[in-house]
């Protein structure tokens, strides 16, 4: 969950920044940043009502939710067939074998203890079991040092750069001074895309020409963040397959370079995963976590073909904090993750969605 302990207005930060810069050791001239332009008018400046976001989340998970609601509709007694159908639905929803087995075993145990009287009680118990898996992963992101460095990682096409832009704007709206680092130096389009997000959010972006050393770009950005009194530095990185050992080594290099300036940096390694990739997202999380020590998950593209269940597999097997989920392309479509809200959207019946609209 995204939760920010300290909030400041820009003029307060400007005063504090000037004071801290005067007492700061000489670091040399800060690298040039792209000057933010006026925010783009094509992006909504104010976040949409939360109810609108919930409708999009319900809609994105509609297929999975319809399956669960249909399973319990009109059923009264709990029998072996119902439990088997539930197990099949969980597996088809990308919940994964281990998490599915855990849920079904716990429900079966409740049934043996006569704690479940009918199918409705089973449905409520299913909700409880799902929340129990996800609740430990609903952890606040506490920004307790400055600059707080967030390193974003993930494979190609998961929406890293878009997530960075949205996250930067949310932080800024909460009173933080934010800077972005264009660490994806393999693609010219990636640098330009990040600059566009910076312009939309009025956030400075540190960038170098395509082909530059990514660790060098992020190092320069870190220096600039120190010099300018920035609260949060969010660094983009090139997309890479979790099986590409040479590119995974580059991430380790970036971490080493950051730690030379601040032994505790990066303070957050945020893995962005595409919910529509199913159990492959779990494999990615495993490999990235082993290589660079992932500290948080951002689950994207829940507005498309995603079944949504892989989040349970990641939570159950890796226990990594789930910071946020994305349901669209707009700035307001990235939201903090809460277990209850997600499970209720996943299990929602079509009738409930229509009522919400």
Automatic annotation (TrEMBL):
<feature type="region of interest" description="Disordered">
    <location>
        <begin position="1"/>
        <end position="49"/>
    </location>
</feature>
<keyword id="KW-0378">Hydrolase</keyword>
<dbReference type="GO" id="GO:0006614">
    <property type="term" value="P:SRP-dependent cotranslational protein targeting to membrane"/>
</dbReference>
<dbReference type="Pfam" id="PF00448">
    <property type="entry name" value="SRP54"/>
</dbReference>
<comment type="subunit">
    <text>Part of the signal recognition particle protein translocation system, which is composed of SRP and FtsY. SRP is a ribonucleoprotein composed of Ffh and a 4.5S RNA molecule.</text>
</comment>
<feature type="binding site">
    <location>
        <begin position="154"/>
        <end position="161"/>
    </location>
    <ligand>
        <name>GTP</name>
    </ligand>
</feature>
<keyword id="KW-0675">Receptor</keyword>
<comment type="function">
    <text>Involved in targeting and insertion of nascent membrane proteins into the cytoplasmic membrane. Acts as a receptor for the complex formed by the signal recognition particle (SRP) and the ribosome-nascent chain (RNC). Interaction with SRP-RNC leads to the transfer of the RNC complex to the Sec translocase for insertion into the membrane, the hydrolysis of GTP by both Ffh and FtsY, and the dissociation of the SRP-FtsY complex into the individual components.</text>
</comment>
<keyword id="KW-1003">Cell membrane</keyword>
<dbReference type="GO" id="GO:0005525">
    <property type="term" value="F:GTP binding"/>
</dbReference>
<dbReference type="InterPro" id="IPR000897">
    <property type="entry name" value="SRP54_GTPase_dom"/>
</dbReference>
<protein>
    <recommendedName>
        <fullName>Signal recognition particle receptor FtsY</fullName>
        <ecNumber>3.6.5.4</ecNumber>
    </recommendedName>
</protein>
<keyword id="KW-0963">Cytoplasm</keyword>
<dbReference type="GO" id="GO:0005886">
    <property type="term" value="C:plasma membrane"/>
</dbReference>
<feature type="compositionally biased region" description="Basic residues">
    <location>
        <begin position="1"/>
        <end position="12"/>
    </location>
</feature>
<dbReference type="InterPro" id="IPR004390">
    <property type="entry name" value="SR_rcpt_FtsY"/>
</dbReference>
<feature type="compositionally biased region" description="Low complexity">
    <location>
        <begin position="31"/>
        <end position="40"/>
    </location>
</feature>
<dbReference type="InterPro" id="IPR013822">
    <property type="entry name" value="Signal_recog_particl_SRP54_hlx"/>
</dbReference>
<keyword id="KW-0472">Membrane</keyword>
<feature type="domain" description="SRP54-type proteins GTP-binding">
    <location>
        <begin position="147"/>
        <end position="348"/>
    </location>
</feature>
<dbReference type="GO" id="GO:0005737">
    <property type="term" value="C:cytoplasm"/>
</dbReference>
<dbReference type="InterPro" id="IPR042101">
    <property type="entry name" value="SRP54_N_sf"/>
</dbReference>
<dbReference type="InterPro" id="IPR003593">
    <property type="entry name" value="AAA+_ATPase"/>
</dbReference>
<comment type="similarity">
    <text>Belongs to the GTP-binding SRP family. FtsY subfamily.</text>
</comment>
<feature type="binding site">
    <location>
        <begin position="236"/>
        <end position="240"/>
    </location>
    <ligand>
        <name>GTP</name>
    </ligand>
</feature>
<dbReference type="GO" id="GO:0003924">
    <property type="term" value="F:GTPase activity"/>
</dbReference>
<feature type="domain" description="AAA+ ATPase">
    <location>
        <begin position="146"/>
        <end position="293"/>
    </location>
</feature>
<dbReference type="InterPro" id="IPR036225">
    <property type="entry name" value="SRP/SRP_N"/>
</dbReference>
<keyword id="KW-0547">Nucleotide-binding</keyword>
<feature type="domain" description="Signal recognition particle SRP54 helical bundle">
    <location>
        <begin position="57"/>
        <end position="134"/>
    </location>
</feature>
<dbReference type="InterPro" id="IPR027417">
    <property type="entry name" value="P-loop_NTPase"/>
</dbReference>
<keyword id="KW-0342">GTP-binding</keyword>
<dbReference type="Pfam" id="PF02881">
    <property type="entry name" value="SRP54_N"/>
</dbReference>
<feature type="binding site">
    <location>
        <begin position="300"/>
        <end position="303"/>
    </location>
    <ligand>
        <name>GTP</name>
    </ligand>
</feature>
């Amino acid at each position: 969950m995204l939760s920010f302990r300290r909030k400041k207005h820009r003029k307060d930060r400007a005063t504090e920044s000037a004071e801290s810069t005067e007492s700061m050791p000489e670091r040399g001239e800060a690298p040039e940043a792209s000057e933010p332009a006026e925010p783009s008018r094509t992006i909504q400046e104010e976040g949409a009502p939360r109810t609108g976001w919930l409708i999009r989340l319900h809609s994105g998970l509609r297929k999975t939710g319809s399956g669960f609601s249909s399973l319990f509709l009109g059923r009264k007694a709990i029998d072996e067939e119902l439990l088997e159908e539930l197990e099949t639905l969980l597996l088809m929803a990308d919940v994964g074998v281990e998490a599915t087995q855990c849920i079904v075993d716990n429900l079966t145990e409740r049934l043996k203890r006569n704690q479940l009287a009918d199918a409705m009680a089973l449905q409520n118990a299913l909700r409880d079991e799902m929340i129990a898996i996800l609740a430990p992963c609903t952890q606040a992101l506490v920004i307790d040092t400055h600059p707080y460095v967030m390193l974003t990682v993930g494979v190609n096409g998961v929406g890293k750069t878009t997530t960075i832009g949205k996250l930067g704007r949310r932080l800024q709206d909460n009173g933080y001074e934010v800077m972005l680092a264009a660490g994806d130096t393999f693609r010219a389009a990636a640098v330009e895309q990040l600059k566009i997000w910076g312009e939309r959010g009025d956030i400075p972006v540190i960038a170098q020409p395509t082909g530059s050393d990514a660790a060098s770009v992020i190092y320069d950005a870190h220096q600039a963040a120190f010099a300018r009194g920035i609260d949060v530095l969010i660094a983009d990185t090139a997309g890479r397959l979790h099986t590409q050992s040479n590119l995974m080594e580059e991430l380790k290099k970036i971490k080493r370079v950051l730690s030379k300036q601040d032994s505790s940096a990066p303070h957050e390694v945020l893995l962005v995963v595409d919910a529509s990739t199913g159990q492959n997202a779990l494999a990615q999380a495993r490999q990235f976590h082993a290589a660079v020590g992932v500290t948080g998950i951002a689950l994207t593209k829940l507005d498309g073909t995603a079944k949504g269940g892989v989040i349970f597999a990641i939570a159950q097997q890796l226990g990594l904090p789930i910071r946020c989920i994305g349901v669209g392309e707009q700035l307001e479509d990235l939201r903090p993750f809460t277990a209850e809200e997600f499970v209720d959207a996943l299990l929602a019946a079509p009738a409930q969605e229509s009522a919400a609209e």
